[in-house]
Write a structure and sequence with these properties.
327 residues; two-stranded parallel sheet; globular; Nucleotidyltransferase, domain 5; seven-stranded mixed β-sheet; 9 strands
């Protein structure tokens, strides 16, 4: 058997809202290809197009799904995958707790509080009916079981502005902060399956091609073997000692959510959780500022939003560090 893991992020570019990095893992009979076409394997149970009336589960790049249909397909994919893993969170709080990676850092004692972060008050599902999620979970579980596989884990690492800013200060820059969040997920997979082969596929962080030094820092007690660092992709191996221990392989390429179903799932989960956090963020300030237009947190609109909520922020004592990213 082998564990296939996909890792992707949402919210790297905006000024407001969290950066979210997610990892989705499935178990399959050991494939000859570390990144097999699971859309083909699971034909009849999943689909790659977000639109349509089929009961099959749509799994695709989160940007494609969100642009075409809004947050609905993101929610259905995320909650269906979790249900197939045996977890059915009824609130954002339960979702965050069920998917928190064990190696992730929590909130530091000196970080400012964020009054809009009340995940227990946001019930799930928000955009799909429960029956649709259940149907999708059954489709996915049945398709994987047919080929001897199963859904394993979903980890979601959330860095609101305060945690993001702390990571930037600690690591030195925004790209390093993103890798630190990703390294939490790599470490979680490495520890969760110590005796099995793990094949991880993740999206490139910007234009970065070389990751060996970063991996060596993340896994100081393990050898990191560079297999390839070409223009198209970067590949690494992390062998593990022991007769039964399987090695961890890591493939990093651009747009891998187009070719890796676990990475597409991770992309959808990361975007979904970011959207839920932005939903709460906007709802909090719209209740205080009549007529306020919501924001996605990007570009000039972020500054427009900050100007319009300035009075409400001051009245509530919300400092810049709690709401605005430093990078």
């Amino acid at each position: 058997m082998a564990i296939l893991v996909g890792i992707d992020e949402a919210g790297y570019g905006p000024h407001l809202g969290p950066l979210v990095v997610s990892a989705a893992a499935v178990r399959l009979p050991a494939p000859p290809d570390p990144d097999p076409n699971l859309w083909g394997v699971l034909r009849g149970h999943v689909r790659k197009r977000p639109r349509g009336t089929s009961s099959r589960l749509a799994i695709c790049d989160s940007k494609d799904a969100y642009t075409a249909c809004g947050p609905g397909p993101l929610e259905r994919a995320t909650l269906a995958f979790l249900a197939a893993c045996g977890r059915t969170p009824a609130s954002l709080w339960a979702l965050v707790e069920a998917t928190r990676p064990p190696s992730a850092g929590g909130t530091a004692s000196d970080e400012p509080s964020c009054p809009w972060q009340e995940p227990a008050t946001l019930s799930l599902p928000q955009y799909q009916d429960a029956a649709s999620v259940t149907s999708a979970a059954e489709h996915l579980a049945r398709g994987l079981a047919h080929v001897g596989g199963a859904c394993e884990r979903l980890w979601i690492n959330v860095a609101p502005a305060a945690r993001f800013n702390r990571l930037v200060r600690t690591t030195g820059n925004k790209a390093a902060a993103l890798f630190a969040l990703t390294a939490d997920l790599l470490a979680a997979a490495h520890r969760r399956w110590p005796d099995e082969a793990i094949h991880i596929t993740m999206d490139r962080h910007g234009g970065r091609r070389y990751y060996a030094d970063l991996l060596a820092q993340a896994f100081p007690m393990h050898a990191v073997i560079t297999v390839d660092e070409s223009r198209g992709e970067s590949r690494y191996r992390l062998p593990r000692a022991g007769r039964r221990a399987g090695e961890m392989r890591l493939t990093i390429r651009e747009r891998c959510e187009q070719t890796s179903l676990p990475t597409a799932l991770a992309s959808m989960a990361a975007k979904y959780v970011r959207e839920l956090h932005m939903h709460q963020f906007n709802a909090y300030f719209r209740a205080k500022v009549p007529g306020l237009r919501p924001t996605a947190g990007y570009g000039r609109d972020a500054w427009r939003f900050l100007a319009e909520v300035d009075g409400a922020r001051r009245a509530d004592g919300v400092p810049d560090a709690a709401i605005l990213r430093c990078r």
